[in-house]
Amino acid sequence: MIRWKVMAGLLGILVLAGLMPSGESLWFDETITQGCASEPTFHALKTRLLTVNSSETQMPLGMLAFWAWEKLAGSSEWGLRSLNILWTLLAAGALFLAGRRLKLPALPFWLIIQPFLWYYANEVRPYAMQIAGAAWVLYGLVACVETQGRGRGWAWAFMGGSVLVTGASLLGAIPVAMAAISIVALFWLWKCWPSRQTWLPLGLGGLLLLLLGVYDVATLLRGAGGARMWETGLINVGFSAYELLGFIGLGPPRLEIREAARQGMPALLALLKTAAPGISLLALLYFLLLLPLKNGLHHTRKPAMLCIGWVALGSPVLLFVAAKIVAWPFWGRHLAPVLPFSACLIAWLASRFYNEVRSRPLAVLVPTLLAALLMTSALTLRFSARHRKDDYRKASALALQAIKQGGNVWWSADLLSARYYGITFNPATPAAAGCVVAITSSDPVPLETISPRAPALVFTSKPDLFDSAGALKHWLATSRYRILQTFPGFTVWAPPATLVPPAS
Description:
Blueprint (H helix, E strand, L loop, with lengths): L1 H18 L8 H10 L4 H10 L8 H14 L3 H5 L1 H20 L4 H6 L2 H6 L6 H21 L5 H16 L4 H18 L8 H23 L12 H11 L9 H10 L1 H9 L2 H15 L11 H25 L12 H18 L3 H24 L8 H13 L4 E4 L2 H6 L15 E3 L8 H4 L6 E4 L2 H4 L4 H8 L3 E6 L2 E5 L10
Parallel strand pairs: 1-2, 1-3
Antiparallel strand pairs: 3-5, 4-5
Helix pairs in contact: 1-6, 2-4, 4-10, 6-9, 9-10, 9-11, 9-17, 10-12, 11-17, 14-15, 16-18, 16-19, 17-18, 18-19
């Protein structure tokens, strides 16, 4: 009977993991990864990673994995994202083993229903890879606690996961460091040293981590890093918790949250009020799970859970402090390696609530309702049109339709994504009809001199990124252009008497 339950659980995880990737449009962060993945040779990829200064250079193993996968699955949207199915299964496998040691057999289930996982397993970015690596770090930590450091299995799992998560992102070093501190503290309490059996995995893993560290320092010294469009503050903390704890699918779309956050906290709170029932219910369920803790932390696996809690709660704090020091805004995606630890905490709290609450209907209802709400949030993120990514595919199709009809198009959005969907940009001051012209905030000359012909359509996206000087916004207002249509990530503008009807 137990074997059939395990097989049914594995089949369910496989089905859900297969549903996570979609074929929807790539957005501009994903297109950068696609550019790395489509390099024809390993030498070309290596040259790119050693010369560019974007954050992708600090994800060397992540880019390498997508590069290798692209050679097998192709460059389609679903083909690139399908790599995340493997990482999801790898993460679930690690938590299956950890759950057996922690007496939490449902632990893989609590990971697979996390909306955070569903969202980032649908990205052509190495976040699912980070989650998989962190899951093996967690298993190695748990196995170390359970065996008191005997044997070498825990060391191989811990170091292998550490290399995977750190190679997928420089920020993966934070939870790895927190977990390593736990292990060092445990050996100090046990008053012993790791056995000789662990020297090979610890030494080999340590060497690889050292090489990755040297590489990361070199990227930092040459100025590599992510964009710094926001100030680091409470909005970063709030939205990161909002994502990590699974609220995101129950609330407004991310793009609407982003726009409201740009306008300030009052606008953001007003937007979140529109989804108050679902958000409030999930928050209430989390609060109820904490109630048994008032009796103390007595638990048969207390040391392991204390270590997991240390990593889950300490990593975001350390990331915030570091981000504040260097004035770099972090978001939920930068906490991807924390997800296995937070999911494990949720699973443990749910199990404890079920076992310790005297009212059996309540003991069953709260964990069941929590799981149902998280699954609802995850499925909404995946299948609701409201939560679609920036739709560069649709925007590019409209632009190509316009130039076929002889009109010019102005494009104030990412150029790499447009090129992926077949748009060719014309050089400055084109006079011929049927041109797509890039309009960016760095243009030093009046917009009319860039394209003398009035555009039939103007595409704008995230003006804080692509029109930060406000030149295009001013031009659209003074030229009396009107909004033709909007869709995720884009606003399409046309003159009062447009020749191009909106697409259905």
